[in-house]
Write a structure and sequence with these properties.
With 225 residues, this protein is of the alpha/beta class. It contains nine helices and eight strands. The longest helix is centred in the middle third of the chain and has 15 residues, at 124-138. The chain is globular, with a radius of gyration of 18 Å. The relative contact order is 0.18. The chain binds adenosine-5'-triphosphate (ATP). Adenosine-5'-triphosphate (ATP) binds next to helix 1.
């Protein structure tokens, strides 16, 4: 699907990740782990730029429009599928078909709030689910998420991860939850000290392996003990 060969990633003259060599295959669920500020988002955004035509991105910033409704924020994910006139008309008077589709997605995401409600009135976890709904509405084969479940309770996060995996053959997620990554992803990439320090099948890894490369959270450490 995509190969990076000796790629330096960063901003202006500053290199954040040097000489990245990674290949991403279709139909793979990949988790990217590592300490805060190490360059996980930088890598994910680079991957998105390379694969944007087949990818929906659920970024940390989410990019929701506070003054618009849940419905319209989700519909934004499908703008490219329709003409400008269809989109404009739908903005003024939402059509039945996308309404039913978006309502169905929101129900799957356990977002039981009227679709007309403004996003500015939602909790952090509800906002995160609107961002996930917009990603699902894009109907792309590749899902990329930057901590897409961080505002949800762990059980709901797991349910929604399974939903995302069912809807997208390829999933690449930046995560802080090492246990979630080990148990529910095929492959784990760890970034530390400005480079990729681990890239292996999840089934061959444990929390102890990961903790050799970066400090895990207290909860994860307890499991190691
Ligand atoms: N737009 C930008 N311009 C310049 N530097 C940036 C920009 N975005 C991020 N950085 C810097 O790049 C480095 C890596 O940031 P990045 O967001 O990729 O890390 P991260 O591993 O995703 O962090 P976190 O886990 O805290 O989200 C940080 O030092 C950050 O300050």
């Amino acid at each position: 699907m995509l190969s990076l060969v000796d790629v330096d990633l960063g901003y202006n003259q500053q290199i954040i990740l040097s000489k990245v060599n990674l290949s991403f295959n279709a139909n793979e669920h990949v988790a990217i782990l590592g300490p805060s500020g190490v360059g996980k988002t930088t890598l994910l955004h680079h991957l998105y730029q390379q694969l944007s035509e087949q990818t929906c991105l659920c970024s940390q910033a989410q990019g929701l429009v506070d003054n618009l409704s849940i419905y319209h924020n989700v519909f934004i994910g499908g703008l490219a599928r329709h003409s400008r006139w269809y989109n404009l008309a739908n903005l003024l008077l939402p059509f039945k078909k996308p309404q039913l589709h978006i309502s169905d997605i929101c129900q799957q995401l356990e977002l039981v709030v009227p679709l007309q409600q403004k996003v500015s009135e939602l909790s952090g976890g509800q906002r995160q689910r609107v961002a996930l709904a917009r990603a699902l509405f894009q109907q792309q084969p590749v899902f990329m998420g930057d901590e897409p479940f961080s505002a949800l309770d762990p059980l709901m996060g797991l349910r929604l991860l399974n939903l995302i995996k069912q809807a997208h053959p390829s999933v690449i997620c930046v995560l802080h939850d090492a246990e979630l990554a080990l148990a529910h992803f095929d492959r784990i990439i760890v970034i530390s000290d400005g480079k990729v320090v681990l890239d292996d099948k999840a089934e061959q890894l444990t929390l102890a392996h990961l903790s050799q490369h970066y400090a895990l959270t207290d909860a994860a450490k307890n499991v190691v003990i």
